[in-house]
Structures are given as structure tokens and as C-alpha cells.
From TrEMBL:
InterPro entries: ArsR-like_HTH, WH-like_DNA-bd_sf, WH_DNA-bd_sf
Entry protein name: Helix-turn-helix domain-containing protein
Pfam family, one: HTH_20
Start and end residues of each stretch annotated as Disordered: 56-75
Matches recorded under CDD domains: HTH_ARSR (cd00090)
Origin species: Streptomyces achromogenes
Length: 223
């Protein structure tokens, strides 16, 4: 359980951050009005998460060493996230442009990231439609698209299309399909280029069916 999921751990962190000096378990429990065993359990979890430091203080006189805790400096990583809003803000830069130009820019951005995310073939490897398709499917699957190749013909010929049965950016695609789908098309094109595949994607059909989008493929001349 993270601090984002545990209000008690967030409160415990606040107590440690507000304290002018490191606190022991008993001191922390007193300030929070909790049993020391409960506080110790949550402190151990925060130490394991790297949010709290634990050290031992030697006593000034007779007595046992005391274990104390301090909050690590830095931004609280247990707070809420809103990457959907961030994505909408970034997309808004394109929506203000000419629609055709905006789609072209989104597609080129996708191509750049496709080339970045895909690994090139080994020097002694000859890319084939089968190998390239398998690697593209693995990449898209890792990104959350749940892809499936369809319409594969005889050996050595590429599949006719790739069905994308899940969209990791579904809400954004519903709002800004022209941009998001252009980005996806460019991603596939860039990955295939990086794979030196003898095929490319010519179009992406958004919501071709209620449960999927379809990327259309075609073979390209080999060098």
C-alpha cells in the first residue's frame, strides 16, 4: 500500500516533516494518537518505500540506543497524478493549428517515437514480413494496444492489417481522434522503419468496429 492509498501514512509523513528533530516511535505515536505498534508498522513500510530514514542515536548517558525517524527531503510522491490533463494540455498546442498540418505534425511525432521504441534488426539478420510483424505486435502489445494481425496471405507476404483491440489513450482518442490516431499511425510507421521492415502502414481506421481500430499495411520494395 502506497502513501497515496493510505491517509494514515500521509499523516505520519506530515508529522515527521513538521517535527524540528527526528522522532522516535513513542513520540510519533503520541502526536498521532495511535498505538506505538501501529505507528511502527507504518514507519517500517515508509522506510521500505524510501520515504523515511531510520537511524540509531546513541544515548547521552546510561540507557539503550534510540531508533529515530526522519522524512526524506523531496517532493511527496504519494500525491495524486493527472497525466490525462497533461496530455490534453499538450494536444491543445496542435488543435490551434490548421487541422491537416496538426495531423501531419502528430504523425511525425509518432514516427519519431516509433523509431525510438523499436530495436533495429541484428547486423546479420534479414528482416522478413513475418519477423517484422511479430516484433511490431510485441511492441504494440507492450504499449497496451492488444494487437492482432489479420489477413496474412502466403509466406513472405505481410498481413493486410493489424487490429488494435485496446486503446491506451481511449478518452483522448474520443476527444481528439484526428490527432491521437495520427500519432498512432506515425508510431507504427516509425517502428516499421526502424525494424527495416519490408512493409509499412498506409492508414489507421479509427473505431473501424465498436471494439477496435484497424491499421492497414502494405509491402514495400526491399533494397
Amino acid at each position: 500500500m502506497s502513501t497515496r492509498e493510505s491517509p494514515r501514512r500521509r499523516a505520519l509523513l506530515d508529522v515527521l516533516r513538521a517535527a524540528p528533530e527526528p522522532l522516535g516511535v513513542a513520540q510519533t505515536a503520541e502526536r498521532m494518537g495511535l498505538h506505538p505498534n501501529t505507528v511502527r508498522f507504518h514507519l517500517d513500510a515508509l522506510v521500505a518505500d524510501g520515504l523515511v530514514e531510520r537511524r540509531t542515536e546513541e544515548p547521552c548517558g546510561p540507557g539503550r540506543p534510540r531508533t529515530v525517524y526522519t522524512a526524506r527531503p523531496g517532493m511527496d510522491r504519494g500525491g495524486p497524478r493527472d497525466y490525462h490533463l497533461l496530455a490534453r494540455m499538450l494536444l491543445s498546442r496542435w488543435t490551434a493549428a490548421d487541422p491537416a498540418e496538426a495531423r501531419a505534425q502528430a504523425r511525425e511525432t509518432g514516427r519519431t517515437w516509433g523509431r525510438y521504441l523499436a530495436d533495429p534488426p541484428a547486423p546479420d539478420e534479414t528482416p522478413t514480413p513475418e519477423r517484422s510483424t511479430a516484433r511490431l505486435l510485441a511492441l504494440l502489445d507492450g504499449l497496451g494496444f492488444a494487437p492482432r494481425a489479420e489477413g496474412a496471405g502466403e509466406p513472405g507476404r505481410p498481413p493486410e492489417r493489424i487490429r488494435l483491440r485496446h486503446c491506451p489513450f481511449l478518452e483522448l482518442a474520443e476527444e481528439q481522434g484526428g490527432l491521437v490516431c495520427s500519432l498512432h499511425l506515425g508510431l507504427i510507421q516509425g517502428a516499421l522503419a526502424r525494424l527495416e521492415a519490408p512493409l509499412t502502414a498506409t492508414a489507421l481506421e479509427p473505431f473501424a468496429e465498436p471494439d477496435s481500430c484497424v491499421a492497414h499495411l502494405t509491402g514495400t520494395p526491399t533494397s
